[in-house]
What does this fold into?
Amino acid sequence: MSVTEAATHLRENPLALARAELRRVGEAFGVDPNLIAVLSECKKSVEVSVPVAMDDGKTRVFDGYRVVHNVTRGPAKGGIRYHAGVTGDEVKALAMGMTWKCALMGLPFGGAKGGVVCDPKALTAGEIERLTRRYTTEIINEIGPEKDIPAPDVGTNAQVMAWIFDTYSMNVGHSVLGVVTGKPLSIGGSVGRDGATARGVLYCIRTALQKEGRRFPDTRLAIQGFGNVGRNLARLLSEEGARVIALSDSKGAVVNPYGIDVQAAITHKAEHGALTGLPGTEDATNDELIELECDVLVPAALEQVINTDNAPRIRAHMVCEAANSPTTPGADDVLEDRGILVLPDVVANAGGVVVSYFEWVQGLQEYFWKEYEVNAKLNDIVVRAFEETWSAKERFDTSMRTAALGVAVQRVAEATTTRGLYP
Ligand code: NAD
It folds into this structure.
């Protein structure tokens, strides 16, 4: 993906949107405007330059960010994104979203996010390792198991987390398991972390379907994005007997209204580097996927893919936001007017941070759980948060998004009031 293409995926300033949403939710839930003013700002924002020795002998300098939005309820938690379209305001908006997500899930964390402006697909493994180690060194005073705990996000993975863990540990002189989550199993990762976000999405869709007396085998789903979240979700859904009718990656979509063989799609993507051309499917564009007739549309790639242009044409019965902020506020209003249920990111994709929390706890205790324990505890937390959101939605006669954010903002506001404003 070129920088120009990537930079255009954001149509509106994500921080302005996040702040406007916070003000709206604050008014709807009667939160003190003074607290909303505090929560509209990020506690700390660090911008670093990351010089990297490239394989061709040249030095390239990348921009990096680490932002902590809030630590009132505990250390900050949030992923690190490697993408050519990363901006400071995007990182701040995502950090704010992490505060609400952790509060809604009842985790003892605040929100953070990080990012480096780069196209990881255009870098070699050695270049990514050097970039990661230098970026980690530049933010080393900001992160730590009691302060701010990174995790993977778009463009980063368990290997990147391993380099962060190693760089931090080498600098302090001993292994610090709790400094980062999403680590490989061999160095203190948690079983179940890799598929955790997708599993949380699965539990949310299942709970929402149950509210309508429906089950997975009667359900047709379209998933945009075939990375950690989209690929694992497609796999889990097919195991549940659901019909996955469309899949996509950045290069395009594939569609089969009778259902795609997900395992074949995983193999095809691994062999060809793209989903398009998958036997038994028709190629389509990502825009066409968003507008497909289906029961559940799952955006699992980037922000703002559902906007006021395409929202009137969406033919899904329900939208489940596996990606962060895939729906613009304008599109949200259109979907609500049209009676399309939206399961918001703050509930739907929280499975990753929940199991990251489990990984952090296991790392601090140096005692590791079994996969069935991880999945059962994940189900408890996600379904409880879903039900709390659902009852707030009924009580306030509002959308799932406003309800979820309302519950979360109230929790952070209450913690802020209880602690008091320092000094
Ligand atoms: P990833 O990098 O593993 O995969 C991203 C996928 O999106 C890839 O298949 C890529 O080809 C596709 N993609 C990129 N640009 C696209 C475009 N313009 N159109 C269509 N597809 C495109 O990332 P991920 O970890 O799967 O994250 C996906 C989303 O889920 C992000 O919004 C991320 O913030 C969110 N999320 C991830 C986690 C996690 O644990 N990984 C947790 C919570 C939220």
Residues 371-396 form the longest helix (26 residues). The CA atoms of residues 220 and 250 lie 22 Å apart. Residues 9, 152-155, 197, 224-230, 248-250, 286, 300-302, 322-324, 349, 352 surround nicotinamide-adenine-dinucleotide (CB under 6 Å).
